[in-house]
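step=encode ok
step=design start
structure_in=
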């Protein structure tokens, strides 16, 4: 059974980094992270992610974009948070953060706020991450093919596995993810997929 290291993070505006999404969340794993906020956290976010204990274990980034805070982050301010109602899944951590940045910009533009670039705080760590070979920061190069299967307890594991396999057949870059609060169901689905 394959276990994936994942990171689940809310998408938020960040006064210094521009955006806090998946990659910057690893700042919580280092000693004295406040030392690494200069220069819009660049190159520090990329360097922390490139460290062997992180890079070797990270497999999947999940961004919680149910509500996106588009201004005055990272502290929560409900007046600058907007419902988006989505999740972002990516094996590419740079692409996930770039999509998070696009969501922040989408809400900023809708509210008449200047872009992060116009404010001089675009998330420069994303370009650095791409130069370091950690992933893709160019929105035109990011593929958006995937499927989320939500399965409640009592679902038939064979049917969930069939649904995942059908979604995975869309191409080598497609992502199929099953989500459930029933760990026994997920184990049974994993067993069926291992035998497929």
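sequence_out=
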């Amino acid at each position: 059974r394959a276990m994936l290291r994942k990171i689940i993070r809310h998408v938020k505006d960040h006064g210094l980094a521009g955006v806090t999404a998946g990659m910057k969340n690893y700042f919580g794993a280092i000693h004295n992270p406040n030392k690494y906020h200069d220069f819009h956290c660049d190159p520090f976010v990329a360097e922390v992610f490139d460290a062997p204990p992180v890079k070797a274990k990270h497999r999947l980034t999940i961004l919680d974009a149910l509500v996106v805070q588009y201004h005055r982050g990272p502290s929560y301010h409900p007046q600058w948070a907007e419902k988006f109602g989505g999740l972002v899944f990516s094996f590419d951590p740079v692409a996930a953060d770039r999509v998070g940045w696009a969501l922040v910009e989408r809400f900023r533009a809708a509210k008449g706020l200047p872009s992060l670039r116009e404010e001089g705080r675009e998330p420069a760590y994303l370009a650095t991450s791409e130069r370091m070979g950690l992933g893709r920061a160019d929105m035109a190069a990011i593929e958006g093919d995937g499927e989320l299967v939500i399965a409640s307890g009592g679902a038939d594991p064979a049917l969930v596995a069939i649904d995942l396999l059908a979604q995975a057949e869309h191409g080598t870059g497609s992502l199929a993810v099953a989500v459930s609060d029933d760990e026994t169901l997920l184990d049974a689905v994993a067993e069926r997929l291992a035998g497929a």
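step=design ok
step=annotate ok -> The chain has six helices and six strands.
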